[in-house]
Design goal:
The complex is a heterodimer of chains A (about 240) and B (about 375).
Chain A lengths: L2 E12 L16 H16 L3 H6 L4 E7 L4 H12 L7 H6 L4 H9 L6 E4 L5 H15 L4 E9 L8 E11 L10 E10 L24 E7 L4 E8 L2
Parallel strand pairs in A: 2-3, 2-4
Antiparallel strand pairs in A: 1-5, 1-6, 4-5, 6-8, 7-8
Helix pairs in contact in A: 1-5
Chain B lengths: L4 E10 L5 H10 L24 H4 L5 H20 L1 H4 L5 E6 L5 H10 L18 H9 L6 E4 L5 H14 L5 E8 L3 H9 L23 E8 L8 E10 L12 H13 L7 E5 L6 H15 L4 E3 L2 H4 L6 H14 L1 H4 L15 E8 L3 E9 L3
Parallel strand pairs in B: 2-3, 2-4, 7-8, 7-9
Antiparallel strand pairs in B: 1-5, 1-6, 4-5, 6-10, 9-10
The chains are: A alpha+beta (about 240), B alpha/beta (about 375).
Amino acid sequence: MRVFVECFEEISLKKTDSLSFNHPLARRMSFLQKAGLEVMSRIEKDYPMLLDSYLYGPECEIFYTTTYGELQAVHTIANQINAKELPVSPLAFQHSVNNAAAGYLSIIKKVKKNVVTLGSGYLALDKAIYSIFHRLKNEPETTAILVHGDEYLFQNEDQAQAQVQFFAFSNFAKTKWQRPLELLDIVYRTDEIAEQDFDKDHPLFARFDNLKQQTFERTVRSQAGELIHSHWSVP
Amino acid sequence: MNQASYVGGVSAICALGKSMDIIEEKIMKGQSAFRRNHRYQEWLDVPCGEINCQSLLAFSKDTDEMIFQMSCDALEQIHEQSSLFSRYRPDEIGLFIGTTTMGSQTTLEQFRKLKHQMLDINTLHWNMQQNTLTEKLQRKYPLKGYASTFSSACSSGAMAIWQAHIALSRGMFKACIAGGFDAITLLTLMGFSSLQVLDPEPCQPFSKNGKGITLADGGALLLLEQEPSKHCFGRILGGGACSEGYHMTHPEPNGSGMSLSMTQAINTCQLKTSDIAYINAHGSGTYANDTAEKKAIASVFGEHVLVHATKAWHGHTLGGAGALEAAISLRALSNLPTWRQSCHGNLNEVPSQPIGLSNSFGFGGNNVTLALQAVAS
């Protein structure tokens, strides 16, 4: 069984960017939540029916992953507590859970499927990919959607406030979609690595920024010595 | 996917006590564990289910460390029960933990220090990440299998157990430590206070006098195995999970999302509603949850099922709640004739191999229902 990324989309949302979706709840949302819905909206526009066939299809598993979660909301509450400005913002508290963006996705897109949210730090994205790879290898004709999102604080107007990556995985060829990547293999292992081996300069996580090569490898590591090594090709 | 996983170890820690025997004894006596003189009393005068153990309270100024120590104590209890680390190679053991407050203490401290600096994810402290818990456990114990941290608010612990069950059935590992832990933090205490859902008195789920939740420290771990061990506590038969798609913090008032997760659990395990003898409800104590959940249970099961809302005794442990209540469910199912006295609802006859559900519903509209079967005592 082969594992394909049928569709990949990545966006960086700046303060000045206008959104392509219009919803009354949008004005309450964090940049991360807006970016999550913006990427969905772009896919709906560029690949009509893809989301329908995945989100509402019978055998799709949805993952949402994030490194630090809803930083803006948590930052707001933390500052209010530190300054003893009470009560804290109820909206910020509602938004502070890691799965808040997934919650808005289900509310706005009327998705009733379960969304598995991983808060596994720098390895969150790759851990979800590892889990999806095992599912798709074991269970024929299944699909998975993976949305990874990160939010930033105190950025300038021209800098990204949030970045989101969207993947639609399948183990069968749906050639009508974009299909930019094939996941050839992914390995998880834990090595004996001392905490002091890591510092701020260590290349802990890789972005998907080398899609133009025929094949590429991606390695991410954690403080605990976890290592996830994946091997990709561009069909 | 319908294959069951066997529960080879159970450990729970909460304000009621540090072992399932103590927790059972206190629930049977109707003793709740709430008190007002907790570590945040100067911030908010509400009862909380603070852990009642000096060795853990020593870390009360650092809730991240407290969560880690609770997890270590629970993991060591599991090893004592099951000889886990001598029966499996380190790379054969998975680790699936749910948490929502791990990293909160570091977050508060970091934001105090880093006020108004340009911040991105490369400059933030590692320990603000919730997966610090699994990473620290992997460093301390011989756990080298795939590890993951689940963070879907109050359903996190149940989600971790359900996903561990699925991963075991896919053969990702031979055994998995699964569960969840959280501690009361200033972020959650002040946050729930701002939503006006903290009960000024000890919480009373499903009672007309209930005014909200009571926060608490705690959680639980289960050892899930592909094959039954000598001391098998029961089985995870499967589960159901869904998104409400309704509101960020409120369930759909008729309980349709809650019904859906319970129905999915029953269907994926190929059970009938009449097979279910016991439900450990989410029963948080808020009006919104309890009215919707009551309707959902009635719509799926009618009256003939025992319903337990054990947060009345141990409080709401957030990401730890689903795991703690799964552990309590297994204990209750193993001795239902005794436990039925503390439950709501009717059951004509207690089946010889009782099956139960454990509900966990979280912010963001994430609903998880676990289906469990105990080995009758």
